[in-house]
Design a protein that fits this description.
about 25% strand; single chain; about 130 residues; three-stranded antiparallel β-sheet
Amino acid sequence: MEVKVTATLGTTLYQTEIQAGKNRISSDEPIDMGGGDTGLNPFELLASALASCTAATLRMYINRKNWEVDEISVVVEMIEDKLNKQTHFKREIHFKGGILDEDQQKRLLVIAEKCPVHKVLTGNVTIETAINH
């Protein structure tokens, strides 16, 4: 899978317009960091990628199995341990509507780990950077 995203930052401190295909969102830094708090900060965007991918992956599986679940809510908390140079993600999954037995819930925990963003975050990642004029 290939994804191409363009982030454009003008003269308004830290307010960034992000475009992927025809879709656009804004990112910014909180006021206490000098931004205007007009959009999600980059870390919130990262955590939201994991949360939304997990919810979508679970929905696909639940629909394929014809299980009854009205709503899936995924809460992701990203905790940065600067001292040990580690980042920890806590992911909590909530289901509304329908009843999932213990075996179904265990299976959904396994499926959550198959979310493509989860795989990227826990996999071997490289970043190549170039400057183009």
